[in-house]
Amino acid sequence: MTTPLPAKAGRRCHNMLNPLHSAHYFSPEFAKEMGALGLDAWSPAYFAGRSAAMGAVGPGTVAATYYNFKYELIAAHVPAIWESASPEDVLAARLRGVDANLRRLLGDAVEGPEMAEAARLALTAAEACTRHARPLHAAHADLPVPDAPHLAFWHAATLLREYRGDGHIAALLAADLDPLEALVSHTATGKGFTPKWALETRGWSRAEWDAAVVRLKERGLLDAEGELTKAGVELRKGLEEATDRMDAAPYAHLGAAGVERLTELAGGFLMAALGAGAFPADLIGKG
């Protein structure tokens, strides 16, 4: 008899895995590898690194799959990034950057038995991720699994992260939140990017941000101070619950004991990575 998963067990596991996937975007190792390909600023490096699994796609595909980036920012770099480097070269450089980044953040743990165990568990969970209507996940699922355990673990974390992210976009659409409204309301929870980082990396102007705040206030989702109202809290709660439902398969496949162990292992790696400065100190919060 299969033991049911505790409430939010999959989400908790995701919350340990997702930062371990995304830390490389903020790392000097990734910047160095992308810079060597001529992608020497954050935006073109990010667009290339995350999009390369889909091939030499255009700005429309990136906008559709990333959702909360301004189209004009994307179009300023895509498809020009593919003139600097092919998707194949970007993928190889990205993996080199991830390798160096994880070795710096985690030290000897990358070679330890716990990393190999975490890789096996995360890859087992990812077996249950389906490709249909999950474009970023599907593209990464077609890539080979790296041999080294720490890179296999990172690859599996990427599959699980993009699978949940693809589902989350569907939830945002169902909630009638446009890309910037989604970003503003997430920031209002205190769990998303600060406005500073959101504006710098997503391409929106302060005027556009303020206009989205007004729209959310008109819907009764933000109060006069820009904080979430009760309705806003419920909307964000509902978004996560809807995303949980669309993200249930990999964790149900892994099983309660496996999810608990993967959460424990990934949590240990994450604490080490955070302690080593994996992210900018002002990245998350209300700012």
From TrEMBL:
It holds the Pfam family HTH_67. This is SalK. It comes from Streptomyces mesophilus.
